[in-house]
Design goal:
heterotrimer, A alpha+beta, B mainly alpha, C mainly alpha, A: alpha+beta, Rossmann fold, OB fold (Dihydrolipoamide Acetyltransferase, E2P), 2 domains, six-stranded mixed sheet, five-stranded antiparallel sheet, elongated, disordered N terminus, B: mainly alpha, MetI-like fold, two-stranded antiparallel ribbon, 1% strand, globular
Chain lengths: 369, 286, 298
């Protein structure tokens, strides 16, 4: 591997440290506190996503890692080294921008070669690496074209190649797939994951699309209003959300709020839900629980399940699954997701107005704080 | 200092040379004009700063006041005529120009980069009493008492000629941006093209018209070439007075006062324009 | 105005006469048809626009001294111009002033343009206002103000004052044009260049300037033409000598008939028109080639 004369970090010397660490990071613009006291740690070689709605501060955080935004307080560390005061060109980090930010006056080849030329890479090696990269993103043969001749998906791949060719230890991606149509986005998600695995670089990926985050990431940080609500594997985030926001943002939550009494929850209209013991809840306290739609059964109920009656308010056919909207108490509606295994025909499915007995296992009650 | 903060500073630093230059060479200059309006001339005829109001009083006397009023009349007339001409021209180019549109606009713009003096001089040559035009008219039997030059009409015409491009371009831009189907809908409703024009096209393009009005009226008020080359002693405008006070008559404070009058008129116009556009955008948002 | 034909065709003029109701059944056919009144006005407009220019050009070739009677074709007035020491000196002065104003205003204007679009400080709003005022100020006001400023600091009107004054109002024009161009640029491209290892200076040189220079070039040519032709401001801020060409033309017009004015005028016309066409065409031509070359191979 060629000596990278412009990198400020030596990964081998500080092996074992996380690739990216944010310590007490905060950013305030005038009156607005966009990022509030963030702590983050990204393991080397992982695909790490920051997920949240628009305005939650995820892009600002990413830009602080890249060096384009100056943190109001806190430190940014790359492989253990404090880079908070370093400009972007001195950090061993490359970025794929949401707008791609391709250089319109340069050809595809020159775009991709840009970073290597700044490092004064030798001609032969440059040619080899750029060629390899173009092949990796499947754009060989288009090296003489100009950015304006490319489609959105192709531009995105050029942006990716341009960043990856420099072999950074960390790659930052700012909603790179947002502008692509669905099919292309799905294909690129697979591609990105494959490339990340193949090259072994740490990816820090920002998105507002929860499906994208769930399918691609090794770790997800769910953010809202400048704070990280929860950080964990996709499974952790989905099956064990720790806050109401996380439960609601990822998938459907099916929230139920009531007073916790005698091993059960009393919902509106005095409806009792025999949930059994709920962890961390005191007698008489008002508690909110959530249940995922696919965990709710409409048939084959067992005695240990938390059971209740539901009135079918709507049926939504979705191809492989059907979603039923059921009212179990005044003003309390649950979405129930069922695979259409046995009920392939409309007559077999429940219809609006029917009363059904539903239930779910007690361990699927998620207590929200 | 991190680079992000540095780059913010950099952009602010870039503002400095330009702002400094403009403040020194333009803003302070304007302030001087206002200041000298209250000045007087000393025994040697040199302008001196003071705090007398006699210049202002002098302007309000009829000799000067009527020139100011005349300038207003000329400029308003010129602006109105520019509007009347610009709309048909812009309309034809915008809606019927086809692929020659850009070429036509270029053809309109190009003469205005030619020397203004020279073009006015051309008119003076053409319209003078022994010029081509007058000779033809006299052949056709027009009386020898009829002159084109040395009239208010000539001066107004000169103003129109000099500044009409600043009306055509904004109106054209507005017309281009306007949704063509509005006109068709109007035709359906109103039948006559003229009514459609007045009730649909004009209101839809009034932003361009307002811009054009400001861009024609203000320079026209300050113009002195048209009056000098095409007009007579009865057609003088504020600009001619100012020129006289600074060069021939050597009464700088009075000249400054006259200039300040122009500046005030400018402010009033801009204020009216900004208020109107603000009102329009508020209505549009509703 | 309205021409009588076999078919009754609705024209704006007849509509104005109030016969619209009769013509209503024809409204479906009228959409793409050219409105004759407006077209006539347009044609007349173009004729009148170029008429004085034509007059000046034609009479510049007049053999006779008269400005009103055309006798025959001759180049004598052009010869007279080139032989007139003072006139050619004035031409040189005009070119000098225009060149200085061009360079000064493009440099300062480009800086202002970037500052106005990218800076987040409050200075931006003030700078914006200050920069815009000259655009709406009648030139005579700018001229008087400049004259007073120079006299106030005991600077005699001369070449320097002329250059300063012309540069000042040029800055406004250039800034407005360039600001639009800077606003179009994606600010992330500079960040991308730095992300890839370029220093801030390198980023500007390699990425921003190549995208800016067509606009800078055309605004430079534009301002050169405007300053070259400028009269009012020059009139107030110029000294006895050297005088720019436009001021000399003015003196000649006022104080005596000098037929070579037509020749000078024609030359200035041709020069201006060429420059403007250049300004419009050049960036488009060079832009296409410029983007194909990698001028910065390291």
């Amino acid at each position: 591997m060629t000596a990278d004369t412009l990198t400020a970090t030596q990964p081998t010397a500080t092996a074992g440290r996380p690739a990216v660490e944010l310590v007490g990071i905060g950013k305030t613009y005038g009156e607005a506190e966009v990022v509030k006291d963030l702590d983050l740690s990204v393991e080397a070689g992982t695909f790490f996503s920051m997920l949240g709605p628009s305005g939650c501060g995820k892009t600002t955080t990413l830009r602080m890692i890249g060096g384009f935004v100056d943190p109001t307080r806190g430190d940014v560390l790359l492989h253990g080294e404090d880079v908070t005061d370093l400009p972007p060109n001195r950090r061993d980090v490359n970025t794929v921008f949401q707008s791609y930010a391709l250089f319109d006056h340069l050809s595809i080849w020159d775009n991709v070669a840009f970073g290597l030329r700044r490092k004064r890479t030798g001609k032969a090696e440059l040619r080899q690496r750029v060629g390899e990269m173009l092949e990796l993103v499947q754009l060989t043969g288009r090296d003489k074209d100009m950015p304006r001749e490319l489609s959105g998906g192709q531009k995105q791949r050029v942006a990716l190649a341009r960043a990856l060719v420099n072999r950074p230890s960390v790659l930052l991606l700012d909603e790179p797939l947002a502008a692509l149509d669905l099919k292309l986005r799905r294909a690129m998600q697979v591609e990105l994951k494959r490339i990340q695995r193949e090259v072994g670089i740490t990816f820090v990926f920002v998105t507002h699309d929860q499906d994208e985050a769930l399918t691609m990431s090794d770790q997800i940080a769910v953010m809202n209003e400048g704070r990280i609500h929860q950080c964990g594997t996709p499974e952790d985030i989905y099956e064990r959300p720790t806050t109401a926001f996380v439960a609601g943002f990822i998938g459907t939550a099916n929230r139920m709020t009531g007073d916790y009494r005698d091993g059960g929850l009393v919902l509106a209209g005095d409806m009792r839900l025999r949930t059994g013991e709920l962890e961390g809840c005191r007698e008489g306290e008002q508690v909110t629980i959530a249940v995922r739609p696919e965990k709710i059964w409409i048939s084959d109920l067992t005695p240990e399940m938390v059971q209740t009656d539901g009135l079918v308010k709507a049926t939504v056919y979705g191809g492989p699954t059907t979603t039923y909207l059921m009212e179990i108490a005044p003003g309390v509606e649950l979405a129930v997701l069922e695979q259409n295994l046995q009920r392939a025909r409309t007559e077999d499915r429940w219809t609006d107005g029917e009363r059904v007995r539903i239930g779910w296992l007690p361990e699927h009650c998620l207590v929200l704080h | 200092m991190s680079s992000a903060k540095k780059s913010d500073r950099l952009w602010t630093w870039l503002l400095l040379p330009g702002t400094l230059w403009m403040s020194v060479f333009f803003v302070s200059a304007l302030a001087l004009v206002v200041a000298l309006s209250f000045g007087r001339t000393d025994e040697l005829g040199n302008p001196r700063f003071s705090n007398t109001l006699e210049n202002i009083r002098g302007i309000l006397e009829w000799t000067y006041l009527r020139v100011i009023i005349r300038s207003l009349v000329y400029s308003v007339s010129a602006t109105a005529i520019c509007l009347l001409i610009s709309y048909p021209v812009a309309y034809v180019i915008a809606r019927h120009g086809g692929r020659y549109r850009n070429a036509l606009v270029a053809l309109i713009v190009i003469p205005f980069f030619a020397n203004y003096l020279v073009r006015m001089y051309g008119w003076q040559t053409l319209l003078s009493d022994d010029g081509v035009v007058m000779k033809r008219l006299r052949d056709l039997g027009v009386s020898s008492d009829f002159h084109i030059l040395d009239t208010a009409g000539a001066v107004i015409g000169g103003l129109v000629y000099g500044y009409i491009v600043f009306m055509v371009l904004p109106v054209y831009a507005s017309l281009q941006r306007m949704d063509g189907s509005l006109i068709e809908a109007g035709r359906d409703l109103y039948g006559s093209p003229l009514r459609t024009f007045l009730t649909v096209t004009v209101p839809a393009t009034r932003a361009g018209a307002y811009a054009g009005i400001v861009l024609v009226f203000l320079p026209a008020m300050g113009d002195f070439i048209s009056a000098q080359l095409l007009g007579g002693p009865d057609n003088l405008m504020i600009g001619n007075l100012i020129q006289d006070k600074f060069f021939a008559g050597q009464n700088w404070p009075l000249g400054a006062a006259l200039t300040m009058t122009l500046m005030l008129l400018l402010l009033v116009c801009m204020f009216a324009y900004l208020r109107q556009t603000a009102r329009d955008s508020r209505e549009a948002a509703r | 105005m309205s021409v009588t034909t076999a078919r009754p065709e609705p024209a704006v003029a007849s509509a104005a006469a109030g016969t619209s109701r009769r013509r209503r059944r024809r409204r479906g056919s009228g959409m793409d048809r050219k409105p004759r009144f407006a077209v006539a006005v347009t044609a007349l407009f173009f004729v009148l626009l170029y008429l004085p220019i034509a007059a000046v050009v034609v009479f510049s070739f007049n053999t006779k001294k008269s400005l009103t009677v055309f006798d025959g074709w001759s180049l004598q007035w052009y010869r007279a111009f080139f032989n007139d020491r003072e006139l050619t000196h004035s031409l040189g002065t005009s070119l000098e002033v225009a060149a200085v104003a061009m360079v000064g205003s493009v440099v300062i204007g480009a800086a202002l343009a970037f500052g106005l679009v990218r800076a987040r400080s409050r200075l931006g709003a003030a700078a914006n206002a200050i920069m815009l005022i000259p655009l709406i100020t009648p030139e005579i006001v700018t001229g008087v103000a400049s004259l007073m400023l120079f006299k106030g600091v005991y600077l005699e009107p001369g070449l320097a004052t002329l250059m300063i004054a012309e540069t000042t109002f040029s800055i406004s024009y250039v800034t407005v044009i360039l600001r639009a161009r800077v606003a179009e640029l994606n600010p992330e491209i500079e960040e991308a260049a730095m992300d890839l290892g370029a220093s801030r200076m390198q980023a500007v040189r390699l990425v921003t300037l190549p995208l800016m220079w067509p606009a800078m070039l055309s605004s430079a040519i534009l301002i050169f033409t405007i300053v070259f032709d400028d009269f009012v401001l020059a009139f107030f801020t110029t000294g006895v000598s050297p005088q720019p060409l436009s001021v000399r033309i003015y003196s000649a017009i006022r104080f005596g008939v000098q037929p070579s004015i037509n020749a000078v005028g024609t030359l200035m016309l041709v020069a201006s028109i060429l420059l403007i066409v250049l300004a419009l065409v050049l960036p488009r031509l060079l832009g296409r080639h410029g983007s194909g070359l990698d001028l910065f191979k390291s």
